[in-house]
Amino acid sequence: MIPSPSASAGTDDRTAPTDDAERLTALRSCHVIGAAPDAGLERIVAVTAASLGMPMAWVSLVDDEVSWLVARIGVDLHRLPRHGQPCERVLTQSGIVVVNADDEGLLFRDLPGVRFHAGAPLITAEGHCIGSLCVLDTKPRDGFDDAERSKLAAFAGLVMDRLEIRRAQLANAAAIGFAQAAEYALLVVDGTGTITFCNPSAEALFGHGAGGMVGRPAEIIIPEPLRAAHKAGLRRIASGGASHLAGRTIELTALHRDGRTFPIEFSMSIWQGPGGIGMGAVIRDISEWRARDAKLVQLAHHDKLTGLTNRALFDERLDASLTTDQYATVMLLDLDGFKEVNDSLGHAVGDVLLQAVAVRLSSWVTAQITVARFGGDEFALLLPGRGSPLDAGALAAQILEAFQTPFPVAGHVFHVGLSIGAAIGGPGTVRDELIADADLALYQAKRDGRRCFRLFEQSMRNAVVARRTLHDELTRAVERAELVLHYQPQVELDSGQVIGAEALLRWQHPTRGLLLPAAFIDALEAHPLAASIGRWIVDDACRQSALWRALGLPPLRVAVNLFGAHLRTGRLAREVIGALERHALPPSLLEIEVTERIALQTDDFLLDPLRELHRHGVSIAFDDFGTGYASLSSLKRFPLTRLKIDRGFVRDILTDRHDAEIVRAVLGMAQSFGLDVIAEGIETIEQDTMLRIMGCREGQGYLYGRAMTAEALAALVMGGRVEGRRGPRAA
Fold first, then answer.
1. How far apart are CA 60 and CA 611, in angstroms?
2. Which one of 169, 189, 254, 584 is separated from 60 by 20 to 30 angstroms, measured CA to CA?
3. Which of 157, 149, 188, 213 is nearest to 9 (CA)?
4. pLDDT (tens digit, 9 = 90+) per residue, 146-160?
């Protein structure tokens, strides 16, 4: 049985303890529990016991469940239970707690021989009691006078001083360890500008060996031109003035030990320490950032492939010229035939050619002229300041002359032509309008045969307005069903019988009368409704052919011209076969005519619909054969059934030996490839006769009839053979 202890006057077990969570936080910040023994605490405990004549003493730090004896003398225990022990009572008291026990009582269950306890609280600067400094004896003591209490309290103060020193040392050690391991350079200087601390990263950054910077002036990392400003700032801070750099992150130039300079990011702090003003900086090398930023600026303002100015920087410079000088000349340049290079040799060769073009352009202009690449094979020149048509024309002539020399690229020799359009801007000119005007001039240069220069004129814009008006009229024409099909007869030359017809589009204009395709076909092919119109042409031609059959006419092959937009939809085969089935028309009575323009602009995978139609029995004809250099290569790519000899060769077949030989060559080639041939543009009996002598079997032209309505063609067919020509049969 434990007798009731007699406590010292002024103590009260019911005093409310401080918030335990905050107390435990303060306790653990000392980092003593679980650590190696602290020699300083051990000495204080030993002196306390000796001074008060006690055989035992300890420092008890009270955790949530355990009292840890972190320093002790005369006792082998390392810990005691927290609750029910005298040490716990110290937590609730404001002064020293003294407890005696008689011979039969126990103060500590784990120390049955203890009969006396006196404990002084260990209180932090924030007022948290974290434990006690205790002295103990094996016999009760009648008195523990004020002098002894004062000594114990003084020794408890020494314990707290030691704990605070330990905490500060640990914090300093952690800070130093962090600084030594930090990736960024850390540097400290005093009020005289002397380096007092630097970490290994700082030594490595500035090229100094270990310990080679401490004690030296900070000028060793400051370039000569900046040292005067540095010294002035240092004097101002040392005299109590404000720093313009403290609390900011700025970019500066630093000096390496080898004499080179490099960019750094610098953030400084200032404090007042025991030794006076202290200044610290966090520093990192931003050379890679600067290089990256420079690269990003380069990429943002220059074409990646050629290194020329890009559209964004070109626009900026044009704006500046129009703002500052109020004048500028813009020239747009487009390569002629570049697409064929990409298509035939691949984009890698095309890219090298573009780079060669960029070099040649740059070498033929002065440094004041901006050379830019807008994209693809389109380039631009900016001539700042007041310009004249003569200046623009002279420069264009020089460039066109320069491009007469071929380009040797990747084992090939390319003869690259240019089309050039230019526009001159004056006061009040808007940048985008000026570029648009130059683009109109470039468009005109292409229409005029390419490899030439055109300067913008107002009439070009008027032409655009006219095209836009025509575009709108075509939209209404489709809505009002003003587009109709006429049919030009195709005949068998030997018999004169009509064996087919070419469906030709006409526009029954409400005010201008019947318009031929030359008046609107270019605008129609670029119209968003081109594919829809192409579907209608195929369907209406099939409908008409089926109607002729129903009227008892002999089978007539109907040829329709293919729109490029219709082919590019990818639905051509499905729609054509659908039209044939809808009108119960045999596939052999339909022929699709492909122009050379489509042949040049069609990738191989887009030919799949034509191949499918050919397998289905639909004839595929190559229109205007022989008029372009791509025709021969197209014979291998296209699933052809028939070649159409262009009217240009037929017109002079009797007077031009070359045209006659071309026709013979086409006929011989077609025979070799197993293809049929039809000649266009036959207007005289003599042409008809010559073609039959050469072995041509089919033809069409004004000699047999112009394009006519479906009803007129039906009447012509019912009339039998086409009269009006005779001649010897082919051998």
1. 97
2. 169
3. 149
4. 899 999 999 999 999
Nearest to 493 by CA among 721, 317, 340: 721
Contact residues for 492 (Cβ-Cβ < 8 A; gap 6+)? 499, 697, 698
pTM above 0.70, yes or no: no
- Tell me how far apart the alpha carbons of residues 361 and 364 are, in angstroms, rounded to a whole number: 5
d(CA 395, CA 388): 11
Res. 725: pLDDT tops 60: no
Q: CA 674 → CA 294, 613, 668, 730, distances in Å?
A: 63, 18, 10, 19
Res. 165 pLDDT band, cuts 50 70 90: confident
- What is the pLDDT averaged over residues 65-87? 88
| Beta strands at 590-594 and 619-625: parallel, antiparallel or unpaired | parallel
- Cα dihedral 88, 93, 96, 101 sign: negative
Residue that the structure tokens 């990256």 belong to: 292
Task: Give kind and range of the element (H or E) at residue 118.
Answer: strand 116-123
**H helix runs in 551-684, sequence order:** 564-568, 572-582, 596-601, 608-616, 631-637, 647-651, 657-673
Position 675, amino acid? L
CA 206 from centre of chain: 36
Instruction: Output the DSSP codes for 273-318.
Output: ETTEEEEEEEEEE-HHHHHHHHHHHHHHHB-TTT--B-HHHHHHHH
